[in-house]
């Protein structure tokens, strides 16, 4: 049979199997099946690791039947069959109700797949699916390594294994697979050909085969990603932009004169870097990383001022209304009369600062849009509302995106497209980004880093409060909070949920965060967990109990924008002692007098989220205190994760911890947003060298005008990824 990568699986496997594969695993073509790699390989001796299995895990194990006993059940009709399987080292129980198992004879080997349960403290599978290895099976089962595939209830690992075998037989080998990688590249990096790698990953004869195959297949993933990014960088470099050189005696000089502090060395250096890039007619694409509190806002403001001085407009995109309003307030305050050009008390040499958010009333919105359109607003600050149709700039020169991790490439592009010519772009993030992530997720941007915090900061001390192990510590936490308030300072209490409603785990205002809590790795199945603590309930309990007498207020995404703003103002004005809030306070909220943060159910938050949160209490001259309250025991993975957060304030170290606890796919969102993921084997933690090498190769491949014309295989892979991602920028370029 003539088989190609695009051949429908139904033609190879028959309609029934193909349908099950399509429906439960989204595998439709020969390509899909071949790129569905084993998750791991089973070998004898492995069952010893059964002890590591968590209740609720769905697993496949290779084992031998040891003992089969059947008996009538006492309390209900029918029989119970218990089967003990083992492999020399360990053993486990399989339990079946009312089924006959003539086939399950002692001594037989098989694969057993099921969900791990527990009965009387012994791990067991109830009603596992199984496949016995019999004389009818081919030599497959004699192999040292049996591939275990990501499987589903309807398509088991062994059906996939058999399907690959069928395909191999039908096509007479994998010779039909064209290798997209150029031969010289393969030779340079010592890589297997694609047909050889596919054969080895699906049917290895030993561990060496697996490793060499993975090495090669990771290259496919890395180079495709890097080609997309290199194409994007190259297209951007060719775009004509508008130079916005410095002009003395303008807004920038006024800002510098008005600053209540001296810039840190880092702020000055990055400032020079930005000033130089803004002066070129090639648009800047820069990522500014800086620890929470490192002072990114003023860096951005100075860049915006330079652009305004050069006759352009600057837009600052913030992830939440609270943050947009705060930026507008602090920037207006810093500029004083210079922010009110055109008003009675304004300085005519200044500009207008306009806030544009979704909650503006129609008339205010119309006025704001008009000022944006006629160019009188030099500085425009807003949320997603800035991206909408009908927001037209007279001459957009610079786009600043604050707290990037909440925005996608598409949103950045939507704003960019509002310039007459491509504007300069500055992306700011407080989440430190490991080098591999910078090379992938942000691979189209140049990077600057602010490492230093302004001096005179007290910093923040963090501790875990393990309420299961040490319940008394929570009382002590509230006492500490009261002490701080008594000393004239303020506090936050953060909860994962709003309350009064079960559908409210996300704030309407704080978009779904990609870096939320990691998968519940040790929560014991999840279903028996109590719901996360809620702002409304916790506030009430604190008011009645440990914090009675203090001035409490709540802040969450279900409040109206006016109410949120009023609450923030009251907190900033010290009319409120304790703000009980959701993660709306996570990004950028700046109240230096707040020194304590108590995070309830801290285990429900992700690592970088916690780091962001505690940044709120490290802003003033007093030392901040962050208490991570959790029921997780310190021996669990969750407990360890929290200990890591408490143990270091080095954002780069935490970024690594974060990466370890998240699946690659969560991080590589862009490459994963398509129907099928492109990144299956590549690890951002382990494959730094490979990614760097692939980046260099990709850049070299695209350095000539012929682009990928001589490499149709690679061009096809890139096109597939681009379509899959709906990565519109390739067409735009
Ligand atoms: P982030 O980088 O987290 O966005 P901000 O820009 O909000 O940090 O700055 C945090 C605080 O530090 C603000 O109150 C700001 O006014 C202050 N700040 C910024 N730069 C300096 C500096 N060089 N010296 C002293 N304080 C500064
Ligand atoms: Mg900020």
From TrEMBL:
Positions of the Helicase ATP-binding domain: 277-450
A GO BP entry: DNA repair
Domain of life according to the entry: Bacteria
Record field: compositional bias (Acidic residues): 501-523
Residues covered by region (Disordered): 497-530
Keywords of this entry: ATP-binding, DNA damage, DNA repair, DNA-binding, Helicase, Hydrolase, Nucleotide-binding
Protein name in the entry: Probable DNA 3'-5' helicase RecG
